[in-house]
Amino acid sequence: MNTTTTTEGYRLEGTMLEICSCAVPCPCFIGEDPDRGECFGVIAFHLEKGEARGVDVAGLTLVNVAHIPGNALAGGWRSVLLVDQCAEEAQVEALLDAFGGKLGGPLADLAGLVGELVAVERVAITHEAREAEGRLEAEGMLEAVFAPIQSSPDGTTATLHDSAFTTVKGAPAYLGKSRRYRVSLPQHGMEWSFDGHNTIQTRWMMEHRP
């Protein structure tokens, strides 16, 4: 039996939450152009379990605050990364290597969409979200409260399946709507407010071993 392990690459699992300026559902999520020709969004990756470069990063949250100037898949994003303040330095470095594309694999493809990484901020992050219901907060920088869209009288949440940004095959993407959505990063030229717009949450998993 081969018990060899590697400290290279990553295996990350949890949820991906998108909140943005588009109407419901967000056309970016299925590879179409954003409603306004541009998108003002956040994508939060909450890591329920996983490691990067052999460093355990379970329980942490990383948020990409992005201005997307056109079709999301065309790239050119202007982004600020918010990293959980409770992360230790080794965890921060491992997360930035993974999400910055240095470790290769599908996260390198995602990082390739960012045309300008403006800054990395350490901040206290509250992630209380399940099936597009709950709240996401980065102290003094981001505040969002959202609720699911119910597709039938029995309270079933509306979902998408197998869309362009669904990264776990067959996992539903739950559709919701923001009750409150604020970004305040004036030091980086990012300030916006959109209520009653898109929220989508889905299971998320990325793995790469070089």
Structural class category: mainly beta
Percent of sequence in beta strands: over 45%
If helices are DSSP runs of H or I spanning 4 or more residues, what is the number of helices? 2
What is the typical, i.e. mean, pLDDT? 93
User: What is the domain tally?
Assistant: 1
Largest sheet: 13 strands, mixed
- The radius of gyration over CA amounts to 17 Å
- What low-confidence regions span 5 or more consecutive residues with pLDDT below 50? 1-6
- Listing every helix as H and every strand as E from the N terminus to the C terminus, the arrangement reads EEEEEHHEEEEEEEE
Count of beta strands: 13
Distance between the termini: 21 Å
Global shape: globular
Oligomer: single chain
Q: What percent of residues adopt helix (DSSP H or I)?
A: under 10%
Polypeptide structure, described:
This protein has 210 residues and is mainly beta. The protein has one domain (10-208). It contains two helices and 13 strands. It has helices at residues 89-99, 106-111; strands at residues 10-19, 39-52, 55-56, 61-68, 77-84, 114-123, 125-130, 133-138, 142-148, 159-160, 173-185, 190-193, 198-208. The longest helix has 11 residues, at 89-99.
In short:
The chain has one domain (10-208). The protein is 8% helix and 48% strand.
What topology does this entry show?
Layout: E1 10-19, E2 39-52, E3 55-56, E4 61-68, E5 77-84, H1 89-99, H2 106-111, E6 114-123, E7 125-130, E8 133-138, E9 142-148, E10 159-160, E11 173-185, E12 190-193, E13 198-208
